[in-house]
Write a structure and sequence with these properties.
The complex is a heterodimer of chains A (188) and B (191).
Chain A lengths: L6 E7 L5 H12 L2 E4 H11 L6 H15 L3 H12 L4 E5 L4 H8 L4 E7 L2 H11 L10 H9 L1 H10 L4 E4 L4 H15 L3
Parallel strand pairs in A: 1-3, 1-4, 2-3, 4-5
Helix pairs in contact in A: 2-3, 4-5
Chain B lengths: L6 E7 L5 H12 L2 E4 H11 L6 H15 L3 H12 L4 E5 L16 E7 L2 H11 L10 H8 L7 H5 L4 E4 L4 H15 L6
The chains are: A alpha/beta (188), B alpha/beta (191).
C-alpha cells in the first residue's frame, strides 16, 4: 500500500470533548484504523505495575520525552501508520505542535478539532470511567487538568485545525458534522 | 488462580564473578523460570520503537526510577514472579537495594550473591571478550567500570544476601557450592 494514498486525520480536543467518539465513528463507518498516543503509554504502565491513570501517563510521557526526545511518541505512531493496511488512519489525542510536525510531512494529513463546554465535558468524564479516578473527580480538579502543560498546547493546536466539530449536542448531531466534512472532502 | 512459587531466588553479583555460569547451572540442574530486570526495560524500549542499546537501557532505568521511585522495577518484577505459577523462580539482574524492596518481605525469597577476587574477575572479563573493547581492557578501566552507576551499588545489594558464593575455583567447585545451597533451601534437582 503506497504511503501517499493513506489519509491521516489527527484529532485534537480538550479532555472528554469527544475525540474517542469521533475516532470510533471513523473506525466503524469509514473503516479507519485508530492509533492512540496513550496506547503505548498504557501498555508500558501496565507492565510496570503502575495504575494507567492520566497522571501516570503524563509523567511517563514527560520522562520519555526528556530522555529520548520530544518526538518519541509521534515516532512510535508514525511507525504504526507505516504498518497500517487501511487507507484511513485516525490519530486520537494529538496534543503538541511537536507531535504533528512529523505528520505534516505526510501528503494527506489533516488536523481535526472537537470542542465542548467544560461542564459538558466534566459530566461526560464522570460517566464514562475510562481512566481510573475519573468518576470521583470534582469539577475543580477537572478544570485543573485543563491547565496542565499537555492541555495548554491543545488549545493552541485547536487554532490550527481544518475544522472544529461542536460536540455539545447529541451523537447524531456530531456524526452529521463528520459526514458533512467527509463528503465535502470528497472522501466517501 | 495460579499458585505462588515455592521459592524465589534472587541473584546479584559483581562483573566477571560467574553469575551467568551459576544461573545457567541452576536452570539446567534445578529448572525454574527466569525473570530479568532488563526484560522490563527492553519491553519499554521496544514498545516505544527505541533502539535496545545498553545506553538506552541505562537512561530509561535512571529516569523511571527518578520519576516513579527506586523500587519501581522491584514491584513490577515481583508481581510477575508471584503470578507466574512456577515452583522455582530466578530473578536476575539485581543491582541495588531498591531492587530488593518488594522481595525482602517474602518468606520464600532467598538472595544469592556471587563474587570473586577482583584480579580473577578482571582476567575472566578479558578472556571472554563479551563486549567490544573488553579483550584489551586495562586494570584501570576495569576499576573505573566498577564505579559506573549501574555497578557501584552492587556491593551494597550483596550485603542482603542469604548466601554468598565465592567463585574463585573451577566450574565443578562452583556447581558443588550451588548444590549445597539448593540442598539447604530444600530444592531438588530435576530429571
Amino acid at each position: 500500500m503506497s504511503e501517499s494514498s493513506k489519509i491521516v486525520f489527527g484529532i485534537v480536543g480538550m479532555p472528554s470533548s469527544g475525540k474517542g467518539t469521533i475516532a470510533a465513528y471513523f473506525e466503524e463507518k469509514y473503516h479507519a484504523e485508530k492509533l492512540r498516543f496513550s496506547s503505548a503509554l498504557t501498555d508500558v504502565l501496565n507492565r510496570l505495575e503502575l495504575e494507567p491513570d492520566r497522571d501516570h501517563q503524563i509523567k511517563l510521557s514527560e520522562v520519555l520525552r526528556e530522555k529520548f526526545g520530544e518526538d518519541i511518541l509521534s515516532r512510535s505512531i508514525k511507525i504504526g501508520i507505516e504498518k497500517s493496511e487501511r487507507n484511513l488512519i485516525i490519530i486520537d489525542g494529538v496534543r503538541r505542535e511537536g507531535d504533528i510536525e512529523m505528520f505534516r510531512a505526510l501528503p494527506n494529513f489533516h488536523l481535526l478539532g472537537v470542542r465542548a463546554d467544560a461542564e459538558v465535558r466534566y459530566k461526560r468524564s464522570k460517566n464514562r470511567g475510562e481512566k481510573p479516578g475519573e468518576e470521583h473527580m470534582s469539577f475543580e480538579d477537572f478544570q485543573k487538568l485543563d491547565q496542565r502543560s499537555t492541555e495548554v498546547s491543545t488549545q493552541q493546536l485547536l487554532e490550527k485545525t481544518s475544522i472544529i466539530f461542536d460536540n455539545n449536542g447529541s451523537f447524531e448531531e456530531l456524526y452529521k458534522q463528520i459526514d458533512d466534512y467527509v463528503a465535502a472532502m470528497g472522501l466517501n | 488462580m495460579s499458585q505462588s512459587p515455592s521459592i524465589i531466588i534472587g541473584l546479584v553479583g559483581t562483573p566477571g564473578s560467574g553469575k551467568s555460569a551459576l544461573t545457567e547451572y541452576i536452570n539446567k540442574a534445578y529448572g525454574g523460570v527466569q525473570f530479568r530486570f532488563s526484560d522490563f526495560l527492553l519491553h519499554v524500549l521496544k514498545k516505544m520503537n527505541l533502539e535496545t542499546t545498553r545506553d538506552n537501557m541505562i537512561r530509561l532505568s535512571v529516569s523511571l526510577r527518578n520519576e516513579f521511585g527506586e523500587d519501581l522495577l522491584s514491584h513490577a518484577i515481583a508481581a510477575e514472579a508471584l503470578q507466574s505459577g512456577e515452583s522455582l523462580v530466578l530473578v536476575d539482574g539485581i543491582r541495588r537495594p531498591g531492587d530488593l524492596t518488594a522481595f525482602r518481605p517474602l518468606p520464600n525469597f532467598r538472595l544469592i550473591a556471587v563474587n570473586a577476587d577482583p584480579k580473577l574477575r578482571f582476567e575472566r572479563i578479558k578472556r571472554r571478550g563479551e563486549k567490544a573493547g573488553e579483550m584489551d581492557m586495562s586494570w584501570e578501566s576495569f576499576l573505573n567500570e566498577e564505579k559506573a552507576p549501574t555497578e557501584v551499588t552492587i556491593p551494597e545489594a550483596m550485603t542482603f544476601a542469604n548466601y554468598v558464593v565465592m567463585n574463585d575455583g573451577s566450574l565443578e567447585e562452583l556447581h558443588a557450592k550451588v548444590d549445597e545451597i539448593m540442598k539447604e533451601i530444600g530444592i531438588e534437582k530435576i530429571g
